[in-house]
Every structure is written in C-alpha cells, then in structure tokens.
Amino acid sequence: MLCDNPFEEKVQKAIERFRAYEDIALSFSPDGFYLAFSGGKDSQCIYHLAVDAGVKFTAHNHHTTVDPPELVQFLRKNYPDVLVEMPKKTMWQLIVDNRMPPSRLARYCCKILKEGGGTGRICVTGVRWAESTARSKRKVLEVVGKSKTGEMYLFNDNEDGRQQFETCTAKGKRVLNPIIDWTDEDVWQYIRSRGIKYCSLYDEGYDRLGCIGCPMARKYGRERDFERWPTYKRGYIRAFEKLAELRNTRGMNEGKRIRFDSGQAIFDWWMSDGKALEEQMEGQEFMDETQSAGE
Question: What is the mean pLDDT of each successive set of 10 residues along the chain, which is 295 residues long?
C-alpha cells in the first residue's frame, strides 16, 4: 500500500516490483533472483530492497581485476554473503587478446568481465533513468537477446508488460530494474535513512565507483584514478607494451606520423581527450590495424 510520502512511495513500489516477479524468478531457478552487485550505491539499494521485500535471491559481484581496492575491501567486510565471480582472464590479458585498448566504441571488457552472469534467471540491476541519456530509454522489465546486435526487448511496468515479459520466447537474459525511476537523491536518502554503510570513496568525491581507468569516464576522473592507484596505470602500460611489440614486429608503425611504438605512446593516446581530427583518424586506424593483426 502506498503512503503520503513520495519517497517512501518509491521505496514501496520498488519492493512491490520484487514481490510481483518472484514467482517467475523461482520458476527459472530455485535460488530466485540473480542480483548484480558491484558494491556501489545503486547495487546496495537493490540488495537491501530485496531483503526488505523478503524475496529469494543470490547476489553476485563480478570481479574485474581493475576494481578500486577500497571497494573490494568494503564488499568483503560488509557483504560476506555476496558471491564473488572471478574472471577467466584479467583486464591485461583481454587487452592483448583483443589487440586494442578498451574504448567507448570497443567495450569488450564490460561484456566479458561484468555482463556474463544471470543467463537463465531474472537478473536484477540498479540501472536508473537519471544516470545517462542512454539509460533513460530503459524499462523496468527487459529481455536481452543473444543476437550479435545484443537486441533488447523492453516491457512496460504493468499487467500487459508482466505477461509479455513472462511469455517472451526470445532466448536471453530477463532483467528487472526495480529502482529505474529513482534519482540520485532517492538513492542517498534510502541509504542514509536506513543507516546503510557505504564505501568511503563516495565521501572523497567519487560519485560513481567503476573500473579504474574506465574509458567511459571523463579524462579528469581517469587521471585522478591513476594518480591514486599508480599500480594499475603501470598494468595498463605493460599490456599496451605488448600491443606496441606486435605493431613493431609487423611493421605497422612505418610511415606513420603518430607512432604507437611503445606502451607509453599507446597509453598517452588512450588517455587524450579533445584530440585533433587527424589524430583521431590515426588512432582509429591504429585500432583497426591492431584488431586485424589478431585475426
């Protein structure tokens, strides 16, 4: 039942979303929901809402090997029941295997390190409309298909949507986003009103806790990451050095104005924002050539 407090109404609505789909989740797996848990503020909300709803779930943290150490320690101390899924390959190995740095256009790291779990179950995420323009198009209920294009089927949060979601014949991962309509203020009000401990990095000015050096972040944020955690910067440069060795061996730097012939050179290009168009084209050519070299 909804109340007169708009915020508590949102909380209750999120709880009811869990309860409304628990029977479907249990029909897919006796473990119930598969809750994607990064340890950040949004995943904390869905974790505690699931507890409040009294539904059955297992929480899973997909370790990326470039997670902030403070976040890893926070998770181990405060959420010992969360299952940590270790990757088959580290970020450094993926960079070499894919023959290019991760980028906004080549997000192979997310696909492999973070998005692999939950197939065959209802996966719960903390996706919210307020996070980005792209996410503003998401729905409470989704089915992510297994096609090469990553086709996604979206459903409304109503009785018709529930029926479509339940009976959809597409092979893929069913997703529930219970706090999709929450603002940043809602997230923090829930955490503070319930006395939930959170990672100390938020109090140091970090508004999102993602992978160290993530190319989706802004330049100043990445630079701050590498200043704070220089070991990870050295890890990226070592991986890029292997790419440089490949280019040098195959003569791919010959005649190039911008020579990607060292790990540091690739790192500097990877970190640069606001590059001249010619440099962007050279960089894209580097990515295309390096990827082809790995085929």
Answer: 80 96 95 96 98 98 96 97 94 90 86 83 93 79 70 75 75 89 96 98 93 91 96 96 86 67 90 57 57 55
> What are the percentages of helix, strand and coil residues in the chain, rounded to 5?
50, 10, 40
Contacts of 29 (CB under 8 A, 6+ apart): 120, 121
Q: Which two tokens stand for residue 144?
A: 């992510």
Listed residue (7, 74, 3) closest to 44, CA to CA = 74
* CATH 3.40.50.620 residue spans of the chain: 6-204
Q: How many CB atoms lie within 10 A of CB 273?
A: 9
Look-up of token digits 């899924």:
85
Distance CA 128, CA 185 (A): 12
Task: Give the C-alpha separation, 18 to 134, whole Å.
Answer: 24
> Residue 144: beta bridge partners?
152, 173
Question: Cβ distance 180 to 155 under 8 Å?
Answer: no
- Token look-up 């990445």 returns 222
Domain range 6-204, its CATH number among 2.30.30.60, 3.40.30.10, 1.20.1250.20, 3.40.50.620:
3.40.50.620
